[in-house]
Description:
This protein is α+β, with helices and mostly antiparallel strands. The protein has 25 helices and seven strands. The strands form two sheets. It has a five-stranded antiparallel beta sheet with strand order 6-5-4-3-7, with no helix packed on it. Helix 8 (118-134) packs across helix 12, helix 12 (196-208) runs parallel beside helix 14 (229-239) and helix 20 (329-341) packs across helix 22 (383-391). Mean pLDDT is 88; it is low at 1-5 and 498-505.
Amino acid sequence: IRQLIHQPASAPEVMLQQAIALAKHDRRSSVEHLVRIAEECGDDPLLPHIVWNNLLPSLTNGGDAFLVALRNAGGARAPALKQIVARALDPILSNPGFSSDLLASFLLTLVNDAESNQALIHNCLVVIAQKLQTGELSDNKRRELAPHLEPVLSPLIAQPQHSDLHREAVLLATSLGMPQAFEPARELLVSPQVSDALRLQALAALIVADDADVLAAVRPILRDAKASAALRRGVIDALGRMETDQIAGMLLDVYAELPAELRPQAIELLTQRPAWAEELVAAIVGKRIAPADVNTNQVLRLSSSKNAALTQQVAAIWGAVRTERNPDREKVIAQMRDTLRTHSGDPYKGQALFGKLCGQCHKIYGQGQEVGPDITANGRASFEQLLSNVFDPSLVIGNAYQARIVVTTDGRTLTGLLAEESPQRVVLKVQGGKLETIPRSQIEEIAVSKLSLMPEGVEKQYQPEEIINLFAFLTLSKPPSDPSARLIPGTAEGMQPATNADQGK
C-alpha cells in the first residue's frame, strides 16, 4: 500500500487506487496526497467524490492538515480542487478548534491571485460570514479571527465598490466587527439601487457586529411602502437576533403601516422574547392591536412566560390556552361546512388572499413558501379533507410536520419545522420559509409541540366573505384561470362561481 501511495500519478486508474488506499492511512501525509490527486485528476467524474469522502474525517477534526496542504500547494488551482475547497469550509468551520492562522494564510494565497480565484474567494467569504451571523462561530472565535483576516480583507475592500468581492469583503469585515467596514455596509442596507438580498446581508452583518446605528436605518425601510414585501419580511426576520428592548417599540409603532401579510410575522417576532411580549400584550390591552391578530400558537407561547403578571393578562384576554388539539374544532367544521355549501365565492380574490397569508407557509401551483405541505397535490383530495386540514389542523400531524419549540440561552423562543439536526446545530424552517439556524451551544431546551404549526382559529382571522373566497379558490382542482379547472370531490355545486372566465374580468 505504501508503494502504491507514493507511486507517481499517471492514469486515472492508478490515482483511483491511490485514493482508495489512502482511506486506510490516518496520517497527515494522506491529506497531502489526496490534495495532489484532486489537483491532477483533470475532469475525471469519479475521483473528486472519492477524494472528498476520504478527506471528510480530517476536515471535521479541524482541517489543519488540509489547510496546510493547500497552502503548500499554492492554493487551489485545479477545478476539482476548487470544488472540494468550496465544500470543505463548512465542516472545517463547524469545529471550534480550527486554526484561524492557517485559514487566513490559505485565503491570502487565494487573494494574491484573486483574478483566478474569484468564485472560490466569494464562496469562502460568504460561508465565513454566514457562520458568524448564525452564531455558529462564537464571539471568542470572531475576536480571534478578526486580526488574522484583516490582511485578507483589506485589499478586497479597496477594490471598486461595484465589484462582487468588494461587497463580500465589506460584509465579512462588518460581521467580524471591523469598524472601517460599518459605513459601507450601512450604505448597502439603505440603498434601493442594490438587490433586496444584498441589503438583507448587510443588515445581518451589522446586527452580528452590534452596530449601534442599525435600528435608525431599519425603521424607514419598514415604513417604506415602495419597499418590497420580501425586503420588509427579511428585515423583520433579522431583527429577531437583536436583544435590545427597542425592537418592540419600533415594530409596534410601524405595525399599522405594514401590509396585512407581514403583520402575522411581526406578531411572531414580538412573542419570541419576554420583554417584547410584555410590550405586545400592553399594546393589546391598550387596543392598539386586536387580540385576533395573535394566533393560537403565539398565545400559547405568551401563556408559557415565567412572568406571572404577563400570564395573568394573557388569561384575561384569551382565557385558558390549550396545549393540545381542541375537540370543539369539530363544531367549527360543521358550521363552516354549512356556510361554504350555501355560498359561492370569487376564486381570484381567494387566490390573492392565499398568496398574502396562507402562502407564508404553504405552496400551491409553484407560488408561496414550502414550510408546511405543498397543497397543489396534498391535503385537497376531497372537500371534507380540506375542511379538516384548514379548521382542525392539529387533528392529524405527519411526522415531518411536527413543530419543534426551541428556547435559546439568550431567552428567545422559536417554533418551526425541523429542517436539519446535527451535533453542531439545529435548523428550523419557520413561518415565511426562512431557515433559522441555532447552534447547539445556544439551545437551552427543545421540545416537540402537540399542536400543528398551522394555528387553529383561521375563521377568526378572516371575514366570512374572505373565507368563502378562499375556499372558492382552494376547492378548484387547478388555478381559476385554467378553463379545465373542476371542483374537488365532495364540493357542493353551489360553491362554484358562474364561470371561471367571468371571475377573471
